[in-house]
Amino acid sequence: MDSLTHIAIGACMGEGFVGKTVGRKAMLWGALAQSIPDIDFIAALWMDTPRSLLAHRGFTHSFLFGAFMAVFMALLAERWHRPHNISLKRWLRFFTGVIFVHLFLDAFNNYGVGWFEPFSSYRISFNAIYVADPFFSIGPGIACLALFLLKKLHLKRRFWWRFGLVTSGIYLMYCTFNKVLINREVLSILKRQDIPHEQYFTTPAPLQNWLWYVVSGDEKGFYVGYRSLFDRQENMDFHFFPRQENLLTQVQDPESLHRLKRFSQGYYTAERWSDTLVFNDLRFGQVIGWQDPNEKFAFHFYLDGTWDNRMVVQRGRFAKWDEQVVKTLWKKIKGN
What we know:
Order of helices and strands: HHHHHHHEEEEHEEEH
Strand order of the largest sheet: 1-2-3-4
Radius of gyration: 22 Å
Number of strands: 7
Number of helices: 9
Number of domains: 2
Largest sheet: 4 strands, antiparallel
Distance between the termini: 30 Å
Helix content: 40-55%
């Protein structure tokens, strides 16, 4: 999830835990605990891009790190607020819950989280909700604002922290239900249209949960298409992108290429744009691909070493958005 959503959810959890005892400081503790796994962003200060891609949502999103930080923050908070009547065990339950909610929520995006680091580099990705979905974030956001404005002992504070957590929880369950439905439809379509599906996944297109981005293929390449929950046509339109593995034999930094392949979980292609060799990670979708099936992928990494790759994950994601793009997205969501 995006950082603001994590902060809002953490603030609601903090209010529900000890809001009446420590006031707005409870919201700060919750927001801090919800944000602490994302401390890995500092890795980008000294790591090259392929390394930092693997570091993000790696060890700091593991169960081991979460457990360690929960104990550390519980000891810190218990000492900070003395004298008080909150037991260390209760502080520990609170911080464990808040931090592990962060780890759980991030697994629903397509980036993947390293729950089992450092013992296993396997990444968990449920691909059920877009990383910045306003329909998920609006409930906690409104609740967090209300809690900030209301006085410490206001009777409505209990309503608002519950509102923030319940609305986001219900929406997450709704997204998971949509994921199950779309996977069932897509797998049936892939078989019916005889499209290779040794590797396939579905994940929401940007900012909503009704139009889904579909990728399916094998070592030769991938078929990419879009499916709405409201589509009634039995088949889908796909556009094929060859993997072109042979292009990658020309890469001068095989170690970085290996990290990119590992990060992509096998969902990659190579292209040559004029004299520039490009590595695409298909998991992050296309730039307005629902309007133009030939559009570039949002994640494209320049392999020639002369281009800036710092914003590689969402490079130009919204650069081409205009009124027509939004209308086309809405039309695709409504289905055929």
